[in-house]
Structure formats: C-alpha cells, structure tokens
Design brief:
Elements lengths: L6 E4 L3 H13 L3 E6 L7 H4 L4 E3 L12 H10 L4 E3 L9 H9 L3 E2 L4 H8 L1 H10 L7 E2 L6 H11 L3 E5 L9 E3 L2 H19 L4 E5 L5 E9 L5 E8 L3 E2 L2 E2 L1 E4 L6 H17 L4 E9 L5 E7 L6 H8 L3 H9 L16 E8 L10 E2 L2 E3 L6 E5 L6 E2 L6 E9 L2 H13 L2 E3 L5 H8 L2 H4 L7 H4 L9 H22 L18 E3 L7 E7 L2 E6 L2 E7 L6 E4 L2 E4 L2 E5 L2 E6 L2 E6 L11 H4 L1 E3 L4 E6 L6 E2 L4 E7 L2 E6 L4 E6 L6 E2 L4 E6 L2
Parallel strand pairs: 1-2, 1-4, 2-3, 4-5
Antiparallel strand pairs: 6-9, 7-8, 7-9, 10-11, 10-15, 12-13, 14-17, 15-16, 17-22, 18-21, 19-23, 20-22, 24-25, 25-26, 26-27, 27-28, 28-29, 30-31, 31-32, 33-40, 34-36, 34-39, 35-38, 36-37, 38-40
Helix pairs in contact: 4-5, 7-8, 12-13
C-alpha cells in the first residue's frame, strides 16, 4: 500500500539528523527538526527552517521522550517520522505510538523491532531459520545465581550483554566467576540507563575474530536483498572505531553465504526497511549470528560509497510503500571505503566537553565528512561523544587507507580533545594496514602519549608573546612601529610558562626574529609578517595549519596534530595530584548513577566507590589508596561538573 508523505520530522540530532535532512530535501520532502535546550543553536536546527523545542537537555527528557516527539510531529503537521540511529530508533513503543497517532514510521514495524530488539528472542528465531548462533544463556531467570550456573556451563571467557540493546552499552567481558557478579551489576545499570531494560544474556566470548555485518534492504512486498558487508572489527570497549567495505577477509563464496543468512534472518521476522545483520567471523571461515539492528547504522556511508546507493532514500521510498526495484544481481561494488569515527575524548578515552573554537573538516575528492558540529557550537555531556565521521574512498583498500590518514591530518578541531591520534595509530598499524585486524586489535597495540613537539612549543610561545604585545600596544596612547621590540638596554629575555611544556625564555631580536631557550638548547625562529602561518626554525621551514588563542588556551595545528597549551603567566599549574591526596574528582561532566560507599567506610585501593555516566557510558570511580571514606561530594542521580569533588579518602 502506497503511503505518500511530503513532510518528515527527524527525531534525532547531530550529524545523522543533517544527513537525513539532506536526502529528504533532495527528494522534495519538507523536514522538521526537534531539539533540546542544549541544542537550541545546533547545526541540525539551523540546517532547516522549522524546528520544535523539547523540554530538558538530558536525553531521557528530550530525544528519548516518546510523548514529546509525537506531540512535536502533530504540532508541526508532520506526516512521517525518521528516527535516525540511537535514541528511539529501535524502540517498539515509539513505532507503535507513531502508528497510533497516524504517523508513518520510517523503519520496520513494532513486531520486527520487538523480536530483533531482544537478543534472546532474535537468537531463538534465527536458530529456527538454520543460522548458527554463539553458545550462551538467554533464560528468563535473571538472578545472579542463574547467571553463575550458566557461566560455569558455558565456560569462560564470556560476554555479558544487554538483551535490549547494542552499541557496547551493557556489555562486559568476564574471565572468571569472581568478577561475574560485579560486572552483572554494572551491565544492568548501563542497560537500564541506555535501553530502559536491565535484562541480560550471556554469550561465550569468541576471541581473535572479525565483526562483519551485512546491510539489507527489504520492501513491504516481499522483496529483500543485501548490499554486501562492512568489516567493523576495530573496536574499543565494544564500540566501533573504524569500519570498511568491502571486508578484507571475505571471499565471494563467504560473502554469498553471509548475505543469504542475513536475508534469511530478515525474512524470518517479515522485515521491511533498511537493517543490518551482524556476525562474528572466525579464522576458519565459520560465522555466527550476533544481532540484528533494525535501523540505519552509523557506518552506512561506507556501503553507500562502494555501491553508489543512498540508503536513506531507500528507507523513505520503502516507508512510502514503493517496491524495491533493485535485485541482488543489480548490486555492484566499486573500490573501497573506510570510515573513522572522530570522537570528543582525551588521551585516557574520557569524554571531553566544551566549546569548539575552530572546526575545519577535510575536503577533497573521495572524502566524505558527516558532522553535526561547527565553529562556535559546544560538545555537551548529555549525548554521544562522536563529533564526525570521516570517510575516504579509493580504487583499492590501500588507496582508501592512505586517503583517510591524509584526511585526518587535514582535520582540525580546537576545543575539546579528540581521538584523532588514536585513529591514526590504528590506521597505520601493521595489522590494519595488512587487513588482519580482529576485534582484539586495540588491546594488542600500545598507545603511548605523544610528547609535546618542541617546534610547536616554540611557535606557541611566540604567539603568546605577540598577543601580549598586541594587548599592551592597544592600551598605549601611541607606539611608533620602529620601537617595536626595541630596548635601550641589552635585549631582555621573557620568561614564559606553557602548561605541558618546559619553561622557556624568549628573546625578541627584532625584524621578526626570536631566540627560544628551552631544555638547554636555543632555537632561532624567524617569522614572516606577510605570511603569519610561516615560520623558519633553525633554517627549517614550517607552515602552521591553524593557530588560535582563546582566553588562556593556545591552540596550534602543525604536522597533522592539534596541540593545546595553556598560558600560565607565572601562575602555578592546576590542581594538586588528587590521587596522592586521596581526593577523587569527576573526570568529566556527567550524572552520578551509583554511590557504593558511605562516610566512615573502610575501602581498599582499587575498590569501586561509585559510577559516573557521561555520553551514554558508565565510568567507574575507584579508590586510589587504602583508607576511610572521609567525605562524599555527590548524590545519586545528580549532575556533576568536570573536576568537582566526588570522594575524599583518608589514609588514617
């Protein structure tokens, strides 16, 4: 049955909202945005003319509020809703609420979402269809004792998983019985917060395997095809980091077998729309059903780049009741595509929030950037940490890999820290470059903190000096150009301090030339007033990609890296080492979801004290020393700022 519509509300935010709106606009469909107070000036709101405000910045009070989303659609006279990914995209109650309100849901029906949304139900269904599944436990008894008994039967190592979810939430690797109960508690908390259900399952943990998924399209007339595979093996904490198509390990025979299994899984639940069936692939070529995602995937661009198809367009056309014109033999694959997820994380993979002072995505043939940020926006603690997806396409895998490394080098973000260096380390690792990466790649690699670049440090010092000089001259009544950097006495060095850099001395020699003393060596730096991005350091020409001073922060983009210094102006740096004092501060903005101790309790080093949730992930706070809980500065369920005191442990 054809269900035409020409107005579409996008019940999401960020890059995926913009990506959906672009396709809808091209199809002549008017799109409507929704936004939380935290997103009132977000790019996805400014992308179109119509937007409806939601109450509450937290996801549960805005983008996860079925009542508010439906009301926004009715208020704006939308005829259909596209959920994007995450949030309500795999919520069966939301799909039903859309239908009950007379709205077209761009996705599968409630039955498919409910069945495939439960890992236990999904596995029971596909097993009946003859698709191999990983041994595990999916019983109705959710007690700790039942899980312990099942774990002993399955054998270790094993995975705890949220039955209702995905994306790494509620997922824990356990290697022995002693750790099981504690990990069950954490998994339940994560699953409840992310999916509204704390039901868990167990699976035998398969190691040294690949994570391979098959993209499918199915219409309401019984036609179903697959669009090939994506290899998503490179993961950290069970969240995908790099994705590529086609998979480097798949033969044509294996591709056909996995493609058929994916189509069979979709048919088993009478699926329609775009969906993804995920498998684990062993070294011997055996594959096992993992789960089915009944929505658009984050990594769908790599499939679009190798097939030339617009998956969102087909989602909309199928939702309208159109027949899937494509047949399996029509699907061809051209070249290779690799995607990297650029996220707001520090070197310890903790969420990094705050304003974006400069965002400059890469450009070039074969490079696609899906982002939901721009200069002047802010990375909020309320939502996922992903900033953008950087995707490169080439005629072969090596060309695509090199193009992606180059694209990351040209990507500049001044503000929150990002995982760019981490992504480049992965892309240039021998295992990934040779196509041998498995799901345990991140655990095998060493990620050392990159030392501060002395060239960047010298340039940052000059930028600070010039900025101070500009401020002084603006306050002066008049300064003759000939007197800049002039002194009646011998040249006086300026002692400077930049956080995370050695103390240095700068001497202005005139004519844009500076001597920088640092770490016992002196560098001569020549600047060029007509080309402020060009520096010559001891005869070596260097060109800055970008530079910015914002408050006391000094940002320098050089040699494909973004470095952030903090001008100290003679002040001592930062806070004391809180771990040494037994003082634990919040590592990021977030919500305290659990406090497991009370004042006066005796604790041991490494003992879990509480949990902070930020950007949909749970972060354990553990005691740095043996001692007594002297103070607790947080309450369960309350928002807490980065650096705020959480616990004080006395060693007495």
């Amino acid at each position: 049955m054809t269900q035409t519509f020409d107005t579409l509300l996008v019940a999401n935010r960020g890059e995926i909202a913009i990506r959906i709106m672009r396709t809808a606009r091209r199809m002549g469909i008017e799109t409507i945005a929704v936004h939380s107070p935290a997103d009132s000036a977000a790019p996805h709101v400014k992308f179109i003319d119509r937007a409806v405000a939601l109450d509450g910045s937290a996801a549960a009070e805005s983008y996860l509020s079925i009542k508010q989303i439906i009301a926004a659609a009715l208020e704006s006279n939308a005829q259909a809703i596209h959920p994007g990914y995450g949030f309500l995209s795999e919520n069966r109650d939301f799909a039903k609420a859309c239908k009950d309100a007379g709205l077209i849901f761009v996705g599968p029906d409630e039955h498919a979402i409910r069945t495939m949304g439960s890992k236990a139900a999904a596995k029971a269904l596909v097993e009946q269809a003859g698709i191999p599944c990983i041994p595990g436990f999916k019983g109705g008894d959710q007690s700790d004792d039942a899980f312990v008994r099942a774990a002993e039967e399955i054998g270790f190592p094993l995975m705890i998983k949220a039955s209702a979810g995905g994306g790494g939430r509620g997922m824990r690797l356990v290697r022995d019985t002693d750790a099981l109960k504690g990990e069950l508690d954490i998994a339940r908390t994560e699953a409840r917060a992310a999916f509204g259900s704390d039901e868990l399952i167990l699976e035998r943990a398969l190691e040294n395997v690949r994570h391979v998924e098959i993209q499918i399209l199915a219409d309401t007339h019984g036609h179903c095809i697959h669009l090939g595979e994506r290899d998503c093996s490179v993961q950290r904490r069970h969240q995908k980091v790099l994705e590529e198509a086609p998979g480097p390990a798949l033969t044509d025979e294996l591709r056909q077998g996995m493609g058929k299994a994916a189509v069979d899984a979709a048919r088993a639940v009478d699926y329609f729309g775009a969906g993804t069936v995920e498998f684990l692939l062993t070294e011997s070529g055996d594959f096992y059903f993992l789960e089915m995602n009944t929505r658009l995937q984050v990594e769908h661009p790599v499939t679009e780049m190798v097939t030339g198809l617009d998956i969102v367009e087909w989602q909309i056309r199928i939702a309208r009741g159109e027949t899937l014109e494509l047949r399996q033999e029509d699907i061809g694959f051209h070249g290779h595509a690799i995607e990297a997820r650029l996220c707001a994380e520090d070197d310890a993979f903790m969420p990094s929030t705050g304003p974006i002072h400069l965002w400059r995505p890469p450009e070039g043939d074969g490079v696609r950037v899906d982002s939901g940020v721009e200069t002047g926006t802010e990375i909020s603690p309320f939502y996922d940490s992903m900033i953008a997806k950087i995707v490169a396409h080439g005629p072969d895998r090596e060309s695509a890999r090199q193009a992606l490394v180059s694209a990351l080098d040209r990507t500049i973000l001044f503000g929150p820290q990002t995982n760019k260096a981490f992504l480049k380390t992965l892309l240039t690792s021998d295992a990934f470059a040779s196509g041998q990466a498995t799901t345990d790649l991140v655990g095998k690699l060493s990620f050392e903190l990159v030392e501060v670049d002395p060239d960047a440090t010298a340039i940052a010092a000059i930028l600070v000096y010039l900025d101070r000089r500009r401020e002084a001259h603006e306050k002066a009544v008049s300064v003759a150009p000939a007197l800049l950097d002039w002194s009646s006495s011998p040249l006086l060095p300026v002692r400077m301090s930049l956080m995370e850099a050695p103390e240095l001395r700068l001497t202005a020699k005139g004519n844009g030339c500076y001597a920088i003393e640092m770490d016992g060596a002196t560098r001569t730096v020549q600047t060029n007033p007509s080309d402020p991005m060009l520096f010559v350091i001891d005869g070596k020409r260097l060109r800055l990609d970008a530079a910015l001073i914002e408050g006391d922060a000094v940002f320098v983009a050089l040699k494909g890296r973004e470095l952030r210094f903090r001008r100290l102006d003679g002040l001592k740096s930062g806070l004391q080492d809180s771990a040494e004092a037994g003082l634990l501060r919040a590592p990021m903005h977030g919500v305290v979801t659990d406090i497991g101790v009370s004042i006066g309790d005796a604790v041991t080093k490494g003992q879990r004290l509480g949990v902070v949730e930020a950007m949909k992930m749970q972060h354990e706070i553990v005691s740095p020393i043996d001692g007594i809980v002297a103070a607790i500065g947080a309450e369960t369920g309350r928002q807490i700022a980065n650096g705020a005191m959480l616990f004080e442990i006395s060693d007495q």
